[in-house]
Specification:
Blueprint lengths: L5 E6 L9 H16 L3 E3 L13 E8 L2 E8 L4 E8 L4 H18 L4 H26 L3 E3 L1 H14 L4
Parallel strand pairs: 1-3
Antiparallel strand pairs: 2-6, 3-4, 4-5
Length: 162
């Protein structure tokens, strides 16, 4: 029976050098929300011609400027590895880090209007990056918008260098 969703997600902890309490909270929320509700459907068969339609376990890492999505079946049998170049994500990641820094600072003392303005900009960057991720996964994996947003958050976590 098909169950096209992620049931477990891990990040390559060796990739993550440092994270603040704010970033750790974002990571926890993104993983929790992702596991509570997501749509993740592989669009091709395994190399042996068999179909496996989920559920999936996903491990994210970054190696040599590439995002590695190691997809496994529920029983941990490796399914497929998807490798995406991160060139189109460099600018959105930088912008997202900058706007998040502004947001975290604003939360500590800015007016409600200022916080809302920064949060709207943050959501705009996040939404555009989610759309880019959906495009980059096209033909490999079908994900819904909310799943792409949460995955982008986790991609950002993998890029924190301290």
């Amino acid at each position: 029976m098909a169950d096209p969703r992620i049931i477990d997600i891990t990040l390559d902890e060796a990739t993550i050098l440092w994270r603040s309490a704010d970033v750790e909270q974002e990571r926890r929320i993104a993983i929790f929300d992702l596991l509570e509700g997501n749509s993740f459907r592989m669009l091709h068969e395994q190399e042996d011609g068999e179909r496996y339609d989920g559920p999936y376990k996903l491990h994210l890492s970054v190696e040599e400027g590439r995002l590695i999505l190691a997809v496994a079946q529920a029983d941990d049998t490796p399914h497929r590895t998807i490798i995406l170049g991160l060139g189109r994500f460099r600018r959105p990641i930088r912008e997202y880090f900058a706007i998040c820094d502004s947001y975290y600072q604003a939360v500590r003392g800015a007016s409600i209007e200022q916080i809302e303005t920064i949060d709207m900009a943050r959501r705009g960057i996040h939404n555009a990056a989610a759309e880019t991720l959906i495009e980059r996964l096209d033909g490999k994996v079908a994900v819904d918008f909310d799943t792409a947003r949460r995955l982008f958050t986790l991609i950002c976590v993998l890029h924190i260098r301290g």
